[in-house]
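Propose amino acids for all 403 sites.
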C-alpha cells in the first residue's frame, strides 16, 4: 500500500511540475520529527516540500544562508497532509519550505497539539548536526495554513502562539462547538486570509468562512476572499484529481491570494498585498465577495514601474484619515507612531486622504519620461488608523529607475 501511494504521489509531482512556472526546482521527502513537548504524537509524521537542487523525491535541498521561510500546513478531516501535493509544490517552488503534517486524519485535538509541537521540533531539526534540513529552517519566518478541519485548527493554534507571522485558511470548518469561534477567534492577532467558495457544500462559506471572518475581532489584518460556485471544498487547495475543467484555474486563483499574504508578511515583498487587497485581487473572474479589515496599517505597491509609468502606492488600514509620504533617501527613525523609514531632510507629503470601508487608499505616482531621471530612487510610507490610533505603516515601498 505504501509503495502504491509513493508511485501515485510521484506521478502527481511530475504532472504538477509540468504545469507550473518553476521558480525553484522542488524536492519532497517524508520525515518523522521527534516531539519534544510531551503533548501530542511522540513522533510527528510530515511530508516536506522544499526548494531543491533538482525536482524529485529526496533530492538535495538548495542550501540558503539563514534557511528558507517555513509554512506549516494542517490537513482536512480524513485527508493526510501528503495528499496535498499541488499545494506543497506550489509553495516550495516559490521559496517556502512547506511542512505538510500527517499524524492524524480524524482527531482535531491531536492535530492541534502536534501543530504546536512542530515549532520546537523544527527548531531542533534546524540545529541538529547532520540533519537533512540542518540550517535550512528559518523559524523566525513561519506561516501557518490549514484546510477544512485544519483551517479551524489554524485559529486554535494562533490563539496559543504568536510564532506564526501570517496565516491562510482554505474552506475552514469551524464545528468544534457552538461557542468555540466566539471564544477563541477573538484572541487572534496574526494577519490572516480566509479563502473559500460558493460551491462548497461541506463547509458552506456563509456558515463557516464568513462567520469566522466576523468573529476575528482583532487580527492585524483579515481578508475574506470568496470565489463563485466553481470553487468547491477541494479545488480551493487541489486540482489534479478533479473532473472539473476549471479546477486548476480555481486552485491557482486561490493560491495567488495565499502566496500574496505569505509574501508580504514573511518575505517583505512590496507587491504581495496587491494579490490580496490591491487591484490584482480584483481581476479573478470568479471572485464573488471580498472583505478587508486592518488594525495595523500596511503599505504596498502595484502596477508598472519605470520612466513614463504610473505606479500605485497603497495604504491598507482601518477606516479614517491617512497620508502618503515620499522622500529621496531611506532612514529609520523611532517615533511615537512607529518607525519612520524616510529621510526627514527630503520628505514630502503629496497626498492626504481617507481610507473608506474598502480598507485601502491608493495614490498614483507617475515618473516623467525624462532620461535625466535614470538612477533616481524614491521611498514611500503611509500613515493610517490602527487599533491604537494613528500609526505609521510597518513597511515602506521603494521605486528605483534603472540607469
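Proposal:
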Amino acid at each position: 500500500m505504501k509503495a502504491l501511494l509513493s508511485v501515485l504521489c510521484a506521478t502527481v509531482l511530475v504532472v504538477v511540475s509540468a504545469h507550473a512556472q518553476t521558480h525553484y526546482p522542488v524536492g519532497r521527502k517524508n520525515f518523522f520529527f521527534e516531539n519534544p513537548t510531551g503533548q501530542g504524537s511522540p513522533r510527528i509524521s510530515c511530508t516536506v516540500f522544499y526548494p531543491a537542487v533538482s525536482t524529485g523525491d529526496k533530492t538535495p535541498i538548495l542550501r540558503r544562508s539563514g534557511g528558507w521561510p517555513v509554512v506549516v500546513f494542517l490537513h482536512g478531516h480524513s485527508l493526510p497532509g501528503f495528499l496535498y501535493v499541488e499545494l506543497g509544490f506550489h509553495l516550495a517552488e516559490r521559496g517556502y519550505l512547506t511542512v505538510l503534517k500527517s499524524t492524524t486524519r480524524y482527531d482535531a485535538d491531536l492535530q492541534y497539539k502536534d501543530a504546536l509541537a512542530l515549532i520546537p521540533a523544527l527548531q531542533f531539526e534546524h540545529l541538529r548536526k547532520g540533519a537533512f534540513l540542518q540550517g535550512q529552517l528559518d523559524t523566525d519566518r513561519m506561516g501557518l495554513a490549514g484546510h477544512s478541519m485544519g483551517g479551524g485548527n489554524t485559529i486554535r493554534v494562533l490563539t496559543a502562539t504568536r510564532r506564526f507571522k501570517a496565516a491562510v485558511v482554505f474552506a475552514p470548518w469551524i464545528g468544534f462547538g457552538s461557542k468555540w469561534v466566539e471564544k477563541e477567534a477573538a484572541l487572534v492577532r496574526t494577519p490572516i486570509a480566509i479563502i473559500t467558495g460558493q460551491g462548497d457544500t461541506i463547509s458552506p462559506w456563509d456558515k463557516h468562512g464568513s462567520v469566522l471572518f466576523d468573529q476575528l475581532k482583532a487580527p492585524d489584518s483579515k481578508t475574506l476572499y470568496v470565489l463563485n460556485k466553481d470553487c468547491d471544498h477541494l479545488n480551493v487547495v487541489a486540482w489534479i484529481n478533479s473532473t472539473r475543467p476549471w479546477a486548476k484555474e480555481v486552485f491557482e486563483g486561490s493560491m495567488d491570494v495565499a502566496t500574496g499574504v505569505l509574501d508580504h508578511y514573511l518575505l517583505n515583498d512590496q507587491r504581495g498585498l496587491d494579490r490580496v487587497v490591491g487591484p490584482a485581487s480584483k481581476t479573478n473572474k470568479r471572485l464573488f465577495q471580498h472583505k478587508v479589515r486592518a488594525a495595523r496599517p500596511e503599505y504596498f505597491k502595484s502596477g508598472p514601474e519605470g520612466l513614463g509609468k504610473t505606479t500605485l502606492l497603497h495604504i491598507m488600514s482601518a477606516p479614517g484619515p491617512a497620508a502618503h509620504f515620499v522622500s529621496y533617501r531611506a532612514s529609520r527613525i523611532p517615533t511615537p507612531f512607529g518607525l519612520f523609514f524616510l529621510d526627514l531632510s527630503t520628505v514630502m507629503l503629496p497626498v492626504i486622504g481617507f481610507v473608506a470601508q474598502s480598507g485601502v487608499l491608493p495614490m498614483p505616482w507617475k515618473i516623467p519620461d525624462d532620461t535625466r531621471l535614470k538612477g533616481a530612487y524614491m521611498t514611500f510610507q503611509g500613515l493610517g488608523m490602527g487599533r491604537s490610533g494613528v500609526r505609521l505603516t510597518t513597511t515602506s515601498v521603494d521605486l528605483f529607475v534603472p540607469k
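The two ends are 59 Å apart (CA to CA). Confidence is low (pLDDT under 50) at residues 1-22.
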